[in-house]
Design brief:
It comes from Sphingomonas chungangi. This protein is of the alpha+beta class. The chain has helices spanning 15-22, 27-45, 73-76, 78-86, 154-160, and strands spanning 61-63, 91-100, 104-114, 129-141, 144-152. The protein has one domain (10-161): Nuclear Transport Factor 2, Chain: A (Roll). The chain has five helices and five strands.
């Protein structure tokens, strides 16, 4: 997915943009998406204690086929912290949202940063931009996040960060 041009200011969502993202959702679904967008603001500031209020910290689970090591909230929380240090400014935003019932949402999100803060997967800082698009399916228990399943465009991320080289076929079936 090609992202349109953006600035860091685009990661602070106006109420008009938030309303556009949540249009068509039920009030409960809108609450859950707003909760997620508010969490992004907290993470974008590096407020690691503040992010706890958005989760059922004792029961929250995380699934991602690219990161099976991040199963619990306590362990998962170290990932945005590491990204914040390695890719300043490490900032997140929601692009689209969908809802199902009273406890599930799906969000399309964008994470941006620059590889200037430290090594990543053995590669020293290159200054390259990080622009990862990902989907998360979130399940709530009460008013807090209880489960996240995420899938992201890791291949493009690793290519952009020069961790791996990826051949770009003209026609992959020839």
């Amino acid at each position: 997915m090609g992202l349109p041009a953006f600035t860091e200011a685009d990661f602070v969502l106006s109420q008009e943009k938030r309303d556009e993202i949540t249009a068509g959702l039920t009030p409960r679904q809108k609450f859950m998406v707003e909760h997620w967008m508010n969490l992004h603001e907290v993470i974008n500031r590096g407020d690691w204690d503040g992010m706890d209020e958005y989760f059922n910290v004792d029961t929250m689970t995380y699934d991602n086929p690219n990161r099976p090591d991040l199963g619990t909230y306590k362990v998962w929380k170290t990932s945005p912290q590491g990204l914040y240090k390695t890719f300043p400014p490490s900032i997140y935003r929601t692009l689209k949202a969908w809802g199902r019932g009273e406890d599930e949402i799906c969000v399309l999100c964008h994470h941006h940063g620059k590889h200037t803060g430290g090594p990543y997967m053995g590669v020293q800082p290159t200054g390259n931009e990080l622009n990862v698009v990902w989907f998360s399916w979130l399940r709530f228990r009460g008013d807090k996040i209880d489960h996240i399943y995420s899938i992201s465009d890791v291949l493009t991320m690793l290519k952009d960060l020069e961790v791996i080289q990826v051949p770009q076929p003209v026609d992959p079936y020839k």
